[in-house]
Amino acid sequence: MQSGTKPSAGVRPEHRGPAEPGAPDVRPKRHERVLTGVNAAIGAVLALSVLFPLAMLVYGSLKDSQFKLPFQVKGFSLADFTRIFTSERLPHIALNSLVFVAGTVLLASVVSVALAYLFERTDIPGRRVLAPSTLAPMAVPATVMAVAWVLAANPANGPLAIAVKRTLGYTVDIYSLPGMILVAGIFGVPGMYIMIAPAFARLNLEFEEAAATSGAGWLTRTRKVVLPLTLPAISAAAMLLVVVGLEEFAIPAMLGTPNQIYVFSSYVQAALQPPSGLPDYGQASAYGVLLVLLSLVMIAAYRRQTREAHRFRVVSGKGYRVTPTRLGRWRAPVAAVVALYVLVAIVIPILTLVWTSLAPFLRPIGLDGLHGLTLANYASIFTDPSLSRAVVNTLVISLLTATLTAAFGSWLALASTRGGRAGAALFDLSFLVFAIPSVVLGMAVLFLYLFLPIPVYGTVWIIVIALTTRYIPRGSRMVQTALLQLDPGLEEVGRALGASGTTVIRRVVLPLVAPAVSRTWLWVFANALGELPIALLLSSSDNRTVVVLLWDMIGESADYPEASALAVLLLAVSSVSVWWVNRRGFQQHV
Predict the structure, then answer these.
(1) Which phi-psi region, left, alpha or beta, contains residue 318 (left: φ > 0; alpha: ψ -120 to 50)?
(2) Is 546 helix (H, G, I), strand (E, B) or coil?
(3) What is the spatial distance between Cα 552 and Cα 547, in angstroms, rounded to a whole number?
(4) What mean pLDDT is reported for the chain?
(5) Which residues have C-beta within 8 Å of that of residue 289, sequence separation ≥ 6?
(6) Dihedral angle at the C-alpha atoms of 220, 222, 225, 226, nearest 10 degrees?
(7) What pLDDT, on the 0 to 100 scale, is given for residue 185?
(8) What DSSP designation does 466 have?
(9) Given this model, what pLDDT does residue 368 score?
(10) Which of 148-157, 401-410, 417-426 is predicted least confidently?
(11) DSSP state of 171
């Protein structure tokens, strides 16, 4: 047989094109139909999970419903907004929100910038231990962090409050606006640090050396060279933290509600679930719309800032090197200050939480209490039917949420990179969820499924739906990052060998992004464990979760020992999940 008469191994001519010149090529059309169907399905899911709840929220704000559900009232009205803007509460809530968010961002920014500079630019001793320790709050759900600080800094018997009173003579009141800012600021440090640390790590030392040659001291170089060049990353992280601060619920609710200190997020929940009386659906909807608008403004500012970040690139391949700044005689004092921060901000609150979980009643840490420590609080969790049911509900909800988010997020990320303009548009549409605070999303989902004839209210499924909606944008972007790192040539080789687009995705693309998908699954699982506002708004007697029980134990029965045992279990599972996510990420880059 002559050369060219026999096809090479693995190549099937009938798959490469039409048999006759000029005949229509059916494969691209079939591929386009598949993509169109996938994009239509994604669009339908996004509409049901994002647009419909948001539309229901706006719909509810335009109904003069007050104590009725929005769809039980005829006609439209601006009465809810009128009541808000003429209410005496609005200035107080707006001022509290402004002070809380600004204070949180300022505290987290100062601490994060200082830590990023020390860990990335200096020869601080103990970095291998101190750096991971400062990021420990990543593994602590916000609800658990709030409970830990309530125990550690309450004026009656909190060890931190007692120490400050004895040494400085000041009375610490954790149930205050400064207390809320302190805890939320510490909680925001890890996320901000992760965003700005690369900017400090990649900054070329030659800029500082040039300033030093001109006679500038360390403080001048830091103020006029390092900080200006890293300012875009710092400002972008601060803008994103503003959005996080606006939607933060657990910390201001647990620390502010006892003294009637409300911010927007906690007041929405208080309007929907007041301690006594009927919920004010109309006012909650109107406040929710205002909160979404504020978040949208900050999200738009954040996206604009990140789009223009290329103008501030300061790292090039030529002559780039990083040499740590020597602290000299300040090495030990600086390391001691960082260690003190870790001790006060993280270690003592968590130890106090563990101590209380082992104590028969609430009492301060001390040697005289060691003989009374017991595991009875943990035993009651697994013997009390309501507590054990809450643990099961939490695990089921977290497992389902993680699985659905990883699957749908991968699907959405794939559409954004392989689905043309329509897929990219749908991917951008999902970004809208970032601007919906979790307490507002929970309220919108509540209205939607009370209206739709779908029997999910009161079940774990309504919480799964809300949490999946909340985490889809984050999950899809984690997978998209992995997809963008793949060499297109790998897929071209598969198609050249006659494989269909579906086969290439199944046999080439998905195995390569599997580590990113598994990290996404673990990240969502860890975060779903401690999600309070959504679970609280959508809870009933049959679908209560651990964080809802924590809320009830602290706010109603004040059963701190048993609540602490629940919190420690939640912290343990969350910590293992976050540790595993970080471990998988490290192994992928080794």
Answers:
(1) beta
(2) helix
(3) 9
(4) 79
(5) 57, 58, 61
(6) 180
(7) 94
(8) H
(9) 75
(10) 417-426
(11) P
SS3 518: helix
Dig out the tokens for 33 from the structure.
Answer: 């139909």
CA-closest candidate to residue 111, choices 161, 184, 172: 184
What number is the average pLDDT over the span 308-320? 46
Residue 108 tokens read as 């987290």
Tokens encoding 514: 């599997």
Whole-angstrom distance, CA of residue 212 vs CA of residue 402: 51
What is d(CA 83, CA 89) in angstroms, rounded to the nearest whole number?
10
The token duo for 42 is 């994604």
Output the pLDDT for position 237: 84
pTM as predicted: 0.81
CB 171 within 8 A of CB 229: no
Confidence of residue 255 (pLDDT cuts 50, 70, 90): very high
- CA torsion 210-211-212-215 (nearest 10°) is 120
Q: How many CB atoms lie within 10 A of CB 25?
A: 10
What six digits make up the tokens of 552?
A: 């009830």
Residues 519, 520, 523, 525, CA torsion sign: negative
d(CA 477, CA 385): 39
Length of the chain: 590
Contact 192, 200 (CB under 8 A): no
In Å, how far from its chain's centre is CA 289?
21
Q: Return the residue matching tokens 């440090």.
A: 189
Task: Please spell the DSSP secondary structure of 470-481, one letter per residue.
Answer: HHHHHHHHHHHH
